[in-house]
Amino acid sequence: MSLRTMRSGLVLVVLLCALGGHFVAAAQPNFIVINIDDLGYADIGPFGSALNRTPNLDRMAKEGRKLTSFYGAPVCSPSRAALMTGCYPKRALPIPHVLFPAGETGLAPGENTVAEVLKAAGYATAIVGKWHLGDQPEFLPNRQGFDLHFGLPYSNDMGPAEDGVKSDLGKPLPETKGRGQPPLPLLRNSQVVKRVLPDDQQSLVELYTTESVRYIAAHKTAPFFLYLAHNAVHFPIYPGKQWAGKSIRGLYSDWVEEVDWSVGKVLDAVRENALSDRTLVIFTSDNGGTQRAVNRPLRGFKNSTWEGGMRVPTIVWWPGRIPAGTASDAICGMFDILPTFTALAGGKLPSDRKLDGANLWPLLAGEPNAKPAHEVFYYYRGLELEAVRDLQWKLVLPASLTNAPAKNAGKSAAQARRAPQLFNLRTDVGETTDVAARHPTIVARLEQLAAQMEGDLGLSGSAPGSRPLGRVANPEPLIPYDAKREAEPRKNQ
Fold first, then answer.
1. What letters, b where the CB count within 10 A reaches 16 and e where it falls short, cover 65-89?
2. From start to end of 372-481, where are the E strands?
3. Does 309 reside within a domain?
4. pLDDT at 302 over 70
5. Which residues pair with 25 in a beta bridge?
6. Which site among 69, 163, 419, 430 is 20 to 30 Å from 316 CA-CA?
């Protein structure tokens, strides 16, 4: 009998995984993470949208718990690396921006992902949707602990312009300038299913939803981890044919409302398969919204370390286990998913490497005496530390704070730096008023917290605490650059 069969056949397991210091008797829960791409903080009803109709997310929030200080990263790949590894992105995927097609680097195969940890605990594992942690065979999901992958290897705008990936639905298709990017592939378990064209873009949400609903039904008798990573609502905007033109706010709202439909179908599948009492579902976004989105009341957008670039709308749902209709403003984020799931599954955390995340279960369960998982949070944009938060206080560090110009080399670090900005996020979540002059002691304390990272993840550039990237020689695109639409694509072995 296999380890997985033995584990899956258990009716009850006793978990002592730091769940608030208590023994908890429960079946191994299922885990579903629904990750949206570029969703704005106030693009959905539970977080204040007055533009988009999101009845399923409204219901999810009424039955679950909102996390209003949940952090991703400024852009896609780093945020997804944090989710997979339980680390600050710079520790596990030290890159300046995002990964691109046919790249030589990716998430190192030696990283222990949440899928691998759960698989070792007896779980079936699947990712449906966007990966974006490397597109070479060595980096794809099936090499990182996932039994199933169906979806795109990266963002839906990474392909040639004439395939509709550089323009929204209904807009003219421009010509690719120069060599451009290779064709965008839809994959199933590392094999190219087809070249993605405009009709395919328009069907992605439905395809992913159908695949996810089938997966839930097929795995209802044993514990599973489903990571549903939509390409929506990332540019180009392609709402499905049943959704395009249905909202009164245009294509972007159409797509947000289709995403809400998808969430409803997934939660319905959980209910219909009698899994509600043993399934934890997390809805979130990889980073803040673009200027198409509504990030109010937050400042800034994607690709920044203002709150609007990294704080993302997040809802957790587990009827009977997570208190309904509640919210928490405690600091938490993508890097907490691996430790939390591991604890609930009775698994083992990697012991040979540093993790930055924590077990959030006491917070999610609403335990009255639960201590904050994090008092301090570091805001990295790529390799640069740009801000640090200590409870409600956030110190924004100008670029010159961490990378003083050479002409200042003879000065002390304090003299060379421009004055940082201090914000009280409890009273000014929009980061509108710099109060540094009023609180010099707090500024000094947060500057010291930032300085403490110099020997770990560093303030700028390479750092001793960053682990090596995965790297391959002679990377090739999944579909050759010169492939015709009707040509047979290259397949990975």
1. bbbbbbbbbbbbbbbbbbbbbbbbb
2. 376-381, 384-390, 393-396, 421-424, 470-471
3. yes
4. yes
5. 14
6. 430
Give dist(CA 440, CA 230) in Å, integer. Answer: 44
Distance, CA of 378 to CA of 400 (rounded, Å): 17
223 pLDDT higher than 70? yes
Average pLDDT of the chain is: 91
User: Could you tell me the two tokens for 439?
Assistant: 């609180």
- Facing residues of 185 across strands? 195
Distance separating alpha carbons of residues 382 and 78, to the nearest angstrom: 8
pLDDT digits (tens, 9 = 90+) for 15-56: 444 344 333 335 899 999 999 999 999 999 999 999 999 999
Q: How many domains does the chain have?
A: 2
Same domain for 288 and 413? no
* pTM exceeds 0.70: yes
Collapse the DSSP code of 56 into the 3-class scheme (helix H, G, I; strand E, B; otherwise coil) and give the result. Answer: helix
- Whether 76 is a known active-site residue: answer yes
Specify the DSSP element, H or E, that contains 3.
helix 3-8
> Count of H helices and E strands in the chain?
13, 20
Structural domain includes residue 469: no
Residue 391 has pLDDT above 50, yes or no: yes
pLDDT tens for 157-198 read: 999 999 999 999 999 999 888 888 999 999 999 999 999 999
Residue after which a domain boundary falls, among 309, 343, 376: 376
The CATH number that applies at residue 308 is 3.40.720.10
Sequence-separated (6 or more) residues with CB below 8 Å from residue 314:
66, 67, 68, 70, 282, 283, 284, 285
CA dist 125 to 2, 11, 117, 225, Å? 16, 20, 10, 5
Judged against a pLDDT cut of 70, whether residue 12 lies above it is answered with no
Domain residues for the domain of 455 are 384-460
Q: Report the candidate in 193, 194, 202 with the shortest Cα–Cα distance to residue 236.
A: 202
Active site residue 234: no
The catalytically annotated residue of 17, 22, 97, 132 is: 132
**Domain-located, residue 468:** no
